Amino acid sequence: MPTPSAPPLATDPGAYGPAGRSAWMDVDWREHQRYVRVDDRWVNVVELPAARSEGRARGLPMVFVHGLSGSWQNWLENLPHFAAAGHRVIAFDLPGFGASEMPGETVSIAGYGRFVDTLLEHLGVGAAIVVGNSMGGFVGAELAIRFPARVERLVLVSAAGLTVEYQRHERVLGALRYASNLLAAWGGWVGSRSDALARRARARRLLMGFVVDRPDRLPAALVSEQVRGSGKPGFVDALDALTGYPIRDRLGEIGCPTLIVWGERDWLIPVSDADEFARLIPDSRKVVWPHTGHMAMLERPAAFNALLEAFVAEEPESQSRGPGRGAREPGASGRRAEVSAG
After folding, report:
1. pLDDT tens profile 107-130
2. Are 285 and 259 in contact (CB under 8 A)?
3. Which of 123, 191, 205, 253 is the 20 to 30 A CA-CA neighbour of 222?
4. Is residue 228 part of a domain?
5. Would residue 223 count as lying in a domain?
6. In 10 A of CB 313, how many CB atoms?
7. Cα–Cα nearest to 240, from 135, 131, 91
8. 89-92 and 128-133 as β-strands: parallel, antiparallel, unpaired?
9. DSSP strands (E only) in 25-77
10. Residue 281 falls within a domain, yes or no?
11. Domain at 29, CATH number
């Protein structure tokens, strides 16, 4: 339940899509991209420094974790906003997605949780605000359970992990794995032509219609970046991992304040899962927006950013963080990381 002293969070999603020219379009992202070596694999990391007021940053670091078939570009409408608000902002491509290499071990949710812990240790991040969409929400929840000192606040945006646990199908997974090899070249073709395709409203509906509610109302440049970062080799293995790692019975161990954000028209993960996450996570609250799909952070960026700002600004109820909170220091996994300029 929400803390009694917490002010109500705004639930009006406002306009659909970005208004005017988005801040991310004026960022030279090459200046903020680098590769980090984690367990002998290269990982693509993007980081924006916090804007400073009177010589100091104002907020905790914010870590953004993308979903299945996604990439760090899923957070383009959010990263510059929170950097300007005084947060050190970190996004990355999970191993097997975007520009990151496939992991050396079998893809798993537990492995992704350890990976995020190791990466943040290397980057010098202690406690952070962790924001995850879809599979990234599943990974964020795993991180909050296994490495509680790492997560000060948790934001789950259409998080996977509940309904999907009943959807494992070995024959379908085998077919998808075979098809993914055949379609690798097709994915490259689409990615190389993403700018031209995204300029067509019909193409935007075909490319994004399953994950957002009104793809024709999203800017072509934003859609192009989503397409460019998608369709990578980790998809099927990660889908397999999603369906083979139950988390329901451990959600009660999350000891940090948690915000659950959902779209009423999410065709990938039912809105009933938002109710279940809110029921199972002790210090949590839920916001569901109408006429919104699976990617609220892109579909309603102004409202999403304002919602997170209000949530992050709240005073904690107490120093107690629930079962296991603070029992394990960040970086306790013992995994290795190195860095290289990108």
Report:
1. 999 999 999 999 999 999 999 999
2. yes
3. 123
4. no
5. no
6. 10
7. 135
8. unpaired
9. 33-38, 41-48, 62-65
10. yes
11. 3.40.50.1820
| Distance (Å) of CA 9 to CA 58, 90, 305, 308, 317 | 21, 24, 12, 9, 16
The encoded tokens of residue 158 equal 């259409």
Residue 38, in any domain of the structure: yes
The whole-number average pLDDT for the span 174-184 is 41
Whole-prediction pTM: 0.85
Total domains present in the chain: 1
Q: What is the pLDDT of residues 213-233, one digit of tens each?
A: 998 899 888 988 887 777 678
- For 318, half-sphere exposure in the C-beta direction (CA atoms, 13 angstrom radius) is 8
CB 137 within 8 A of CB 157: yes
Angle (nearest 5°) at CA 212 between 210 and 217:
120
Token pair, residue 44, equals 């693509």
Q: pLDDT-derived band of residue 135, with 50, 70 and 90 as boundaries?
A: very high
- CA 285, 115, 88, 32 dihedral sign is negative
Closest CA to 179 of 224, 239, 134, 228: 239
* Cα 127 to Cα 139: distance, rounded to the nearest angstrom: 16
Note down the domain range covering 101. Answer: 25-181+236-323+331-341
Cα of 91 vs its chain's centroid, Å: 8
Structure tokens at 226: 């989503």
